[in-house]
Amino acid sequence: MAEEVVVVIREYNPKTDDERVEQVESSCEVGPNGELSLFTDLLGDPICRVRNSPAYLMLVAEMVNKGGDGKEEKKEIVGMIRGCIKTVTCGTKFSRTKFGDSHKQLPVFTKLAYILGLRVSPFRRRMGIGLKLVHRMEEWFGNNGAEYSYIATDDANEPSVSLFTGKCGYTKFRNPSVLVHPVFAHRLTVSNRVTIVKLTPPDAEKLYRGCFSTTEFFPRDIDSVLNNHLNLGTFLALPKGYIWAGSDKFLSDPPENWAVMSVWNCNDVFKLEVKGASKLRKGFAKTTRVLDRAFPFLRLPSLPKVFSPFGLHMLYGLGGSGPLYTRYAKFLFGFAHNLAKECKCGVIATELSSEDPLKLAIPHWKVLSFTDLWCIKRLGEDYSDGSVGDWRKSQPGLSIFVDPREF
Asked: What's the whole-model pTM score?
């Protein structure tokens, strides 16, 4: 009997798959020879990036070699994919009074699925394994009521873009910017013209639902995000002298200028490491840190230890109002930087719509930052478009709400 090789797509088993999954992850992280590459250490938990979502699944592709003449089967994990599902804002509608008049904007929600962490072993590519993983994940999405699916990738990642837009039916949808800033050895100065208040989760939820529930991608379960142990807090920048008396009072009579920002602790979920750097680059980075630590009063920009494992904080839920709003947000950024320094993070990052005015106000290093590409697919045609229509055809708004659970 001749050998038979088949690829089986099945659910990830944490009891038997961890080591083999990690091997595939490691093989996929190796960058081109002589170039810098970013390695992600999932700290022994392959589903850490979806674990906090309302519903999630991880699948693996296993190549099974069924030997002839009664020989044992040989099994090799050659790929994996993660997916999660949540309910988000996809548009708005106007509420109406009993007289038929428009009253205020209300969010329109949809059940949205997200694909991330698709990996195929470099030695098993061009065999349709990635496509099989995507199709099986989309089947799970559909069985659980998801109406749309989306993915995030680097626009320069041609194989990924080609797979999703060319073979899987996705279309390019949004181009948010990922802004990354190193955490210096010195603290950043926060203006004494503002007061920064840490909100309780209930107050933060009221503020976000009251001000941002109509923002695209706003998660309907924002309370779960804010009460998660990885959420380090929601911080509000207010004019000096403003007395905080709770979200109800704030929403009914807000100050002219204010800004809000939440901080998510990715440091306890995964670590990053830049590999492939020359001794010269490593030496230069070390010199900047030594000088920054020795002369903090000079406020010299310095590179953190990115050539060894480092953690990050993600800033999300950025927003505010008033002519000084972007300046207040910059003050909050300084506060978040100092918090990340206390937690020994290497960088802080945020993701904003390409149309967001904060994109120019939030400090970041261009060499570390990049443009993301979000592609979307409609999973079925058997539901009503309602007041929004086909979300894929909508125009981008000024802002998006990036869920930290998927960063």
From this structure: 0.90
